[in-house]
Specification:
Largest sheet: 8 strands, parallel
Bound molecules: pyridoxal-5'-phosphate
Order of helices and strands: HEHEHEHEHEHEHHEHEH
Strand content: 15-25%
Shape: globular
Length: 227
């Protein structure tokens, strides 16, 4: 078995075990394979093993990979980087799920561009749950106006919340941020309004699943170190 195939099996098993520990259905959790800085060959290999969701954090890389891999008919792209206005066209071409909507202004720009392209975009609002000053994401006070901006846009579909918590070697330390994002979701409309919670990376995705993640974003544990 190749390394990617073996890693994928381990990750799937750990997601399943975490779901079962917390009384959840493993089918409710999507693994987004973060393929940034990894080759198209690596993505094809993961796809051949059944992986369908892939995430990139640079808009041009997303555009280039989506174009090069367009023969993979049911591949689904996620955009997880900071999105600049002038790069919106690239994520639209890939029909990506935008995980990082972080302002009402960006929601407005995405809506205009999606409308011009005649598509509808799925969006998550990125929350700065750890209140880190240098991190992107919406502050807790600003979440509601950004959610409303996405909901009132005709070409955007609000799908939930995403967060990148402060880094910690100890997964138990990040657990409190995952739990805080879930509590925030539950206090502002619950699953009916915000069905998805994207949280958890290579070091802490089992903890994120235990705390309610429906999307985990895993790069290194699947593809190895980035060059
Ligand atoms: C790179 C990245 C990941 C994956 O990180 P790993 O530690 O390699 O699993 C997840 N989410 C975002 C937003 C990223 O930029």
């Amino acid at each position: 078995m190749s390394t990617i195939a073996a890693n994928l099996t381990v990750i799937q098993r750990r997601i399943q075990a975490a779901a079962e520990r917390s009384g959840r259905n493993p089918a409710d959790i999507t693994l987004a394979a973060v393929s940034k800085m990894h080759s198209e060959a690596d993505i094809r290999e993961a796809y051949a093993q059944g992986q369908r969701h892939f995430a990139e954090n640079y808009a041009q890389h997303l555009r280039d990979k989506a174009a090069a891999l367009c023969d993979l008919s049911d591949i689904r792209w996620h955009f997880v980087g900071h999105l600049q206005r002038n790069k919106i066209k690239y994520v639209i071409a890939a029909r990506a799920l935008i995980e990082t909507v972080d302002s009402a202004a960006l929601a407005g720009e995405l809506d205009l561009a999606a409308g011009r392209a005649g598509v509808c975009l799925d969006c998550l609002v990125q929350v700065n749950i750890g209140r880190e000053t240098q991190k992107s994401g919406v502050s807790l006070e600003e979440v509601e106006p950004v959610l409303t901006a996405v909901e009132s846009a005709n070409h955007l579909r609000l799908q939930g919340l995403m967060t990148i918590p402060p880094y910690d070697w100890e997964p138990e330390e990040t657990r409190k941020h995952f739990s805080a994002l879930r509590k925030l979701r539950d206090s502002i409309g619950g699953i009916a309004r915000l069905p998805h919670l994207s949280m958890g990376m290579s070091g802490d995705y089992p903890e994120a699943v235990e705390e309610g993640a429906t999307i985990v974003r895993v790069g290194t544990a699947l593809f190895g170190n980035r060059n």
